[in-house]
Design goal:
mainly alpha; 2 helices; membrane; DUF8151 domain-containing protein
Length: 81
């Protein structure tokens, strides 16, 4: 019985970590995109370009790699059980 409980807690922790990673990286990407727009409006195109690239990377990691590749399959597996 304790092994089964440990497996459930471990799986839930992995699911929760992927959910937090998805939301956190997506939020970070949106924040970087916003800062890039502010920097671009202020005339600092070099800083804006850096923030746009960082925002794009964070959004790709958050939405696609963490969300679509990890979080959705784990959620679907839990819901079908």
């Amino acid at each position: 019985m304790p092994e089964h409980l440990f497996d459930v807690v471990w799986a839930f922790g992995a699911w929760l970590l992927s959910a937090v990673g998805t939301v956190g990286l997506t939020g970070l990407g949106v924040y970087f995109e916003h800062v890039g727009q502010v920097e671009f409006a202020a005339g600092h195109t070099e800083y804006a370009a850096v923030h746009f690239v960082l925002g794009l990377l964070a959004l790709v990691w958050g939405l696609y790699l963490c969300g679509y590749e990890v979080f959705l399959p784990k959620t679907r597996a839990y819901l079908t059980k």
